[in-house]
């Protein structure tokens, strides 16, 4: 399902006080007397899709102008996904877009119930609508749009080589970026490599071991307090086991005292089991104290003051502390740094080889891009010839028989995302005129007709589902006007078309006819936009033809126009 605009509500815009437009899926025309507000319909649609907000367009006496549109979109389509990504909602396949412009010039926009920047509406509009108003002929005037439009017109012939080019282009950008980083940061990378080598050499020379710093700290403490440790062990030994040189009469050591206690208890242990248990525990205590005393003696013998070894340990600790200050909090962290540094150094040392490899790939990619770009250029030039001829033929039937549209395909500066080509649509308004860019080579009315011719030619390829035209028939009448109506009807076979017109020949081809009626004070009220019946269409066409709704001659001519248009549409 192609998206379409179902309804538009306009309040406080220009001469329009309030109006509701219910639009058909096919070809809708909007007519009305001069000053009724027909052009404000196009202005409102332009605002709805991100057009420039002009506070001068706010109706005098109104605080703001408001335009609200209801669009029918596929819940699974691209537009719905974009709305959901922006936080908006679509209910039952309907998308609500709203725009307000205050009299002071402030503008606000809503998309699917969510406030969004006005630029977001422009972004969404790219996939929804092309507005061709007197001030909105910008869509196909943008060089990027013209290139994209020509590519769509070129069709399947361009798809495969363009995809191959885009893939090669993306890889070329990656290679160029990697080379830029490797070459522009060569000095920094060399400095980093030197720093890593210095650190690795320093660590390799020191050869730290995991846990070594803790071991050295303990050894340094022991060596620094050797005398105190030995004295303490000797004193403790004497207290437990006594001095072997002293006589037994003065023995007050722990072992002797425990022995005396044990002997006293052992003498009477048989009289009470509880006391026997205590005697056993005293025996165990005596054995334990003897063992501790023996170990204290051995410890005292082992502790020696060694100033030389202490100096060595302190020097080693200083070395490890220096490494920890630079590379990690302990020996284990220092060794981890060394492993990571070695891996990074290997990567840096491989830069020269990597640069050579990338340079070779870059040369290959440039050659490939040149080949693919040349193929794209050839396809585009062929499509440009066909396109220029087709649009020129359309213009001949739109009262511009001497105008010629051409497409200039020129080489730009370097490779771009879509090739090397710059595409520009040009118009020669008459045989003696030089081809000029569309925006410079045509007047407002001519530009609308050129846009119509382009859209008709592009109709099968352009994904935009809704087209809005204002003044497409400026300066045209008679047979040319009939041809404009016929082409708009042809465009409406594949898209929704909304046209503001003053020509009955164009209006006769519409599937739906809306008329904007003026109230007595010149403003337009809610009921002022009316969808006409077949009878009402004949009356309105008669007014447009003869200036009188009830003119018999005008009415006959109007009915004839409607019959011709209906027969033409049925024939196609």
UniProtKB/TrEMBL annotation:
<dbReference type="InterPro" id="IPR003395">
    <property type="entry name" value="RecF/RecN/SMC_N"/>
</dbReference>
<keyword id="KW-0547">Nucleotide-binding</keyword>
<keyword id="KW-0227">DNA damage</keyword>
<comment type="function">
    <text>May be involved in recombinational repair of damaged DNA.</text>
</comment>
<dbReference type="Pfam" id="PF02463">
    <property type="entry name" value="SMC_N"/>
</dbReference>
<comment type="similarity">
    <text>Belongs to the RecN family.</text>
</comment>
<feature type="domain" description="RecF/RecN/SMC N-terminal">
    <location>
        <begin position="6"/>
        <end position="521"/>
    </location>
</feature>
<protein>
    <recommendedName>
        <fullName>DNA repair protein RecN</fullName>
    </recommendedName>
</protein>
<feature type="coiled-coil region">
    <location>
        <begin position="355"/>
        <end position="386"/>
    </location>
</feature>
<keyword id="KW-0067">ATP-binding</keyword>
<dbReference type="InterPro" id="IPR004604">
    <property type="entry name" value="DNA_recomb/repair_RecN"/>
</dbReference>
<dbReference type="InterPro" id="IPR027417">
    <property type="entry name" value="P-loop_NTPase"/>
</dbReference>
<keyword id="KW-0175">Coiled coil</keyword>
<keyword id="KW-0234">DNA repair</keyword>
């Amino acid at each position: 399902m192609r998206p379409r605009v179902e309804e538009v509500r306009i309040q406080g815009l220009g001469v329009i006080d309030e109006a509701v437009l219910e639009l058909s899926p096919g070809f809708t025309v909007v007519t009305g007397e001069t000053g009724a507000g027909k052009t404000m319909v196009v202005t409102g649609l332009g605002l709805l899709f991100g057009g420039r907000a002009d506070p001068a367009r706010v109706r005098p006496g109104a605080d703001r102008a408001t335009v609200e549109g209801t669009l029918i979109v596929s819940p699974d389509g691209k537009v719905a996904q974009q709305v959901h990504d922006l936080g908006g909602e679509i209910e039952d396949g309907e998308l609500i877009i709203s725009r307000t412009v205050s009299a002071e010039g402030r503008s606000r926009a809503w998309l699917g119930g969510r406030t969004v920047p006005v630029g977001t509406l422009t972004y969404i509009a790219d996939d929804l609508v092309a507005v061709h108003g007197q001030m909105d002929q910008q869509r196909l005037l943008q060089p990027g749009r013209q290139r994209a439009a020509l590519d769509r017109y070129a069709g399947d012939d361009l798809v495969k080589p363009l995809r191959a080019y885009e893939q090669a282009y993306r890889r070329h950008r990656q290679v160029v970026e990697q080379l830029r980083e490797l070459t522009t940061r060569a000095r920094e990378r060399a400095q980093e490599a030197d720093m890593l080598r210095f650190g690795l050499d320093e660590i390799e020379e020191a050869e730290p071991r995991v846990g070594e710093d803790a071991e050295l700290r303990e050894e340094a403490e022991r060596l620094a307090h050797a005398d105190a440790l030995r004295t303490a062990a000797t004193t403790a030994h004497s207290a437990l086991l006594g001095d072997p040189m002293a006589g037994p009469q003065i023995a007050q050591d722990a072992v002797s005292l425990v022995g005396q206690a044990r002997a006293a208890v052992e003498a009477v242990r048989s009289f009470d089991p509880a006391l026997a248990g205590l005697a056993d525990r005293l025996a165990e205590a005596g054995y334990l104290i003897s063992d501790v005393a023996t170990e204290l003696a051995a410890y005292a013998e082992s502790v020696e003051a060694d100033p030389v070894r202490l100096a060595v340990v302190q020097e080693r600790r200083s070395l490890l502390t220096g490494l920890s200050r630079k590379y990690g909090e302990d020996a284990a962290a220092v060794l981890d740094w060394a492993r990571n540094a070695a891996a990074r150094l290997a990567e840096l040392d491989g830069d020269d080889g990597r640069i050579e490899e990338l340079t070779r790939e870059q040369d290959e990619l440039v050659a490939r891009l040149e080949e693919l770009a040349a193929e794209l250029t050839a396809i585009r030039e062929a499509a440009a010839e066909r396109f220029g001829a087709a649009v020129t033929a359309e213009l001949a039937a739109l009262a511009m028989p001497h105008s010629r549209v051409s497409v200039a395909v020129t080489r730009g500066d370097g490779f771009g995302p879509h090739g090397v080509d710059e595409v520009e649509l040009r118009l020669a308004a008459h045989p003696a005129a030089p081809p000029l860019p569309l925006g410079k080579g045509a007047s407002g009315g001519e530009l609308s007709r050129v846009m119509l011719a382009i859209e008709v030619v592009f109709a099968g390829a352009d994904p935009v589902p809704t087209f809005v035209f204002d003044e497409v028939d400026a300066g045209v009448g008679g047979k040319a006007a009939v041809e404009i109506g016929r082409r708009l009807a042809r465009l409406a076979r594949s898209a929704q078309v909304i046209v503001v017109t003053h020509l009955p020949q164009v209006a006769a081809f519409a599937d739906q006819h809306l008329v904007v009626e003026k109230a007595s004070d010149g403003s337009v009220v809610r009921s002022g936009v009316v969808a006409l019946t077949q009878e009402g269409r004949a009356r309105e066409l008669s007014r447009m033809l003869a200036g009188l709704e009830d003119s018999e001659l005008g009415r006959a001519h109007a009915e004839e126009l409607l019959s011709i248009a209906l027969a033409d549409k049925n024939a196609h």
